[in-house]
Write a structure and sequence with these properties.
This protein is mainly alpha-helical and 170 residues long. It folds into 2 domains: 53 residues, Cytochrome c-like domain (Cytochrome Bc1 Complex, Chain D, domain 2), CATH 1.10.760.10; 77 residues, Cytochrome Bc1 Complex, Chain D, domain 2. The chain is 38% helix and 4% strand. The chain is built from 6 helices and 2 strands; from the N terminus they run E-E-H-H-H-H-H-H. A two-stranded antiparallel ribbon has the order 1-2. Helix 3 crosses helix 6 and helix 5 crosses helix 6. The radius of gyration is 17 Å and the shape is globular.
């Protein structure tokens, strides 16, 4: 989240318009976290905005922050069956054999409490870029781009909640 306030307002392709930091925070709640919206003017929203602003203070403007963003991966054909094997050895220790996660550090990857199908991670290419760059957390960089695609395809073959469009403001 470091440096995020400087990026807003920004154009959001999904919304088809310029969005604010509060819009993006709300999108995280209802899509990525599969939760309910919070009030734009409530204390919870203000606390999240204040925190993101606070952690961003030491970061010089326009300078990239290490560990942020997605890496560019080549176009690959994912193999979910191979992904299941890699998931069992490289991911299940933190995210659980059934993708249930381990609260509070490791989120569920499928099932009732995982991100919904409206989240950015509900895209195999985006997830593979994140996985290849950031996972496993305790041994980053050990997965090849192909393995990241395979794991992502396996995760995407599992059930997840549908995005509740009633929560969509844009």
């Amino acid at each position: 989240m470091v440096g995020v306030p400087e990026a807003f307002p920004m154009f959001n392709r999904r919304a088809g318009r310029i969005i604010s930091l509060k819009d993006r925070i709300e999108e995280c709640f209802v899509r990525s976290e599969n939760g309910k919206p919070i009030s734009y003017d409530g204390p919870e929203m203000q606390a999240v905005v204040d925190y993101i602003t606070w952690v961003s203070k030491p970061q010089p403007r326009e300078e990239p922050f290490v560990g942020r963003g997605l890496v560019h991966l080549p176009s690959l054909q994912p193999d979910p069956k191979h992904g299941a094997q890699i998931y069992a050895t490289q991911c299940a220790g933190c995210h659980g054999q059934q993708g249930e996660g381990r609260s509070p550090l490791f989120p569920p990857l499928w099932g009732e409490y995982s991100f919904n199908d409206g989240a950015g991670m509900n895209d195999i290419t985006k997830m593979a870029a994140f996985v290849q760059h950031n996972m496993p957390q305790n041994r980053m960089g050990i997965l090849s781009p192909q393995e990241a695609f395979d794991i992502s395809a396996y995760i995407h073959s599992q059930p997840r909640p549908a995005f509740n469009h009633a929560f969509e403001r844009f």
